[in-house]
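A quick word before the example. In earlier lectures we treated sequence and structure as two separate objects. From today on, think of them as two lines of the same record. Here is FHA domain-containing protein written that way.
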Amino acid sequence: MLYNEQTSTLTRKRMEQISKEKIRAIQSKIPFSHEEEHLIRQIPSNVQQHLLQLHIDQLLEQNQQIFHHSRTLKAVEEHWRELKNVRLLIDQTPQKEDTQEESLLERIYDLGSLVGIDPADLLPLDVEERQFARSALITERETNDWQNVFVGAITGVPTSLPNMSPNSMGILFGRTTTYDIRDDKVLIGRSTRNHAVPVDLSLDGPIAHVSRKQAFLKMTENGECVMRNLGRRPIYINGVPLLENEAMVLPQNSIIEISQIKLKFIKNEHYQKELVQGRFFGNRKQQ
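And the structure line, produced from the sequence above:
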């Protein structure tokens, strides 16, 4: 457009052909300002449908200097419903579960400057702060999961068994990735934007038919490693199908096939002894 006159001329003509309705529809998606949201929050949450549009129409007419000129009745109504769903209207009170998000924000930030301020004087969390609180909570959970599973890359052809840590229950070997499990129970699946699993199979290969919560691996008190299939599609362990909600004991050097992912499980024989001894001495201390 800047350096080609023919392209620039063609682009201008296409822009001039855009209808005014299309332009207004695009401009109506501009984020609402704090002043606009403050006025929209004044509309009661229990207003009837036929009165709601009347409220919005009067609001737009009386506050033309505040609202963007492209704001339509439909766009304002949709934003009002979003605020209502997250309980941000003036006549609404935050839900009880929102206290978890507020406490999370207090842990993230040093709120020493707010000491002595009445919590009733604080405004409820807006939409952006709520989204930040949720993402921070997800990150905190992911960090805890990473501490239970150490992921590594496979380089070359392994010639011998790895030296396992005393805290390792076992290792899952994939094509390109190893999962060193440092807990007696772990969730296996695929991670998404809002859901993370300790053993993320997306790091090792195609996951088109892998569930977010595909399997659960646990070591029992007698030292057996048991896998339960949580997904709809079967898992194959040494060629034997494991259907949904079924469980099977994993022998040493088991081959686990989940869709196109193939894993080899090597159990740490010393982990079970230390686990049982820890529980034994722990029970003796309690007695």
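Notice the following. Helices lie at 5-16, 20-27, 34-40, 49-62, 73-85, 98-108, 127-148, 269-286. We will return to this example when we discuss secondary structure assignment.
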